[in-house]
């Protein structure tokens, strides 16, 4: 059966190390759309960090979709409107903030195309996230946050070695209440329990009346693992984690060698 939906991670997968789309990638994805294949950008970034690539690909038209914040939101790619979302609230922020303060970790939250943090000292990785996602940082003490504020995700950050050492100190109850994702070596993301990339793709597939064997997913990090649960063709990049590679049906070249284009040309076009 032909592939009818391709879900693709951005950083480390679709984009090269300079966070750019190659000409070959653009041509291949546009050809997939001409072949009536839905191409879904599925990223940990907020919509503001995905939107420039949607425009560059020409996918900012009705009938196109994207997934942001590791599956917290399914967007109409033409305007960014939320079609489905799974959010967090102020009580969630307070609970996670208390834990990160105890463990000397930085915390910021994404919501309404803004980054919020109650940390007086803005961490390096918060600044890095703001740069990648084209999003402004708002320092807001907890007591000044609106009681009805909602977030698409919370991001705990620190140096890789320290974050790895303290993750085991996070209460087991958090894993029952939330989806926790190590999206990069320096980020641990906290999402609504119902949010991950796989569930978002599954929701879109149901809307489009597609079956598992008609879905192809491509990624590089462990936050892409849920995508592999709902796809018939699972592509790991050469630069992917060992765990993701172990779950892949195929492995393609790295993100600096147009691995996504090669995989689509071989298995979908």
TrEMBL record:
UniProt entry tagged with the keyword Nucleotide-binding: no
Ranges that cross the membrane: none
Molecular function GO terms recorded: magnesium ion binding; phosphatase activity
CC per GO annotation: cytosol
A Pfam short name: Hydrolase_3
Keywords: Hydrolase, Metal-binding
Classification via InterPro entries: Cof, HAD-like_sf, HAD-SF_hydro_IIB, HAD_sf
Protein name: Sugar phosphatase
Originating organism: Providencia sneebia DSM 19967
Lineage: Bacteria, Pseudomonadati, Pseudomonadota, Gammaproteobacteria, Enterobacterales
């Amino acid at each position: 059966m032909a592939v009818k939906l391709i879900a693709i991670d951005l950083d480390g997968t679709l984009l090269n190390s300079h966070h750019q789309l190659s000409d070959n990638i653009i041509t291949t994805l546009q050809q997939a759309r001409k072949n009536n294949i839905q191409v879904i950008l599925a990223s940990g970034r907020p919509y503001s960090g995905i939107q420039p690539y949607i425009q560059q690909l020409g996918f900012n038209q009705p009938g196109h979709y994207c997934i942001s914040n590791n599956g917290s939101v399914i967007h109409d790619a033409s305007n960014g409107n939320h079609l489905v979302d799974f959010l967090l609230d102020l009580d969630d922020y307070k609970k996670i903030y208390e834990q990160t303060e105890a463990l000397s970790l930085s915390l910021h939250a994404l919501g309404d195309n803004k980054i919020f943090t109650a940390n007086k000292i803005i961490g390096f990785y918060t600044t890095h996230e703001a740069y990648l996602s084209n999003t402004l940082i708002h320092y807001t003490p907890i007591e000044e946050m609106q009681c009805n504020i909602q977030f698409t995700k919370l991001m705990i950050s620190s140096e890789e070695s320290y974050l790895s050492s303290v993750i085991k100190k996070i209460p087991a109850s958090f894993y029952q209440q939330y989806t926790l994702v190590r999206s990069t070596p320096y980020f641990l993301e906290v999402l609504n329990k119902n949010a991950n990339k796989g569930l978002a793709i599954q929701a879109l597939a149901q809307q489009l009346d597609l079956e598992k064997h008609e879905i192809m997913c491509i990624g590089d990090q462990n936050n892409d693992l849920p995508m592999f649960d709902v796809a018939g063709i699972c592509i790991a990049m050469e630069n992917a984690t060992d765990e993701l590679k172990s779950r892949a049906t195929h492995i393609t070249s790295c993100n600096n060698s147009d691995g996504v284009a090669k995989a689509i040309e071989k298995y979908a076009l």
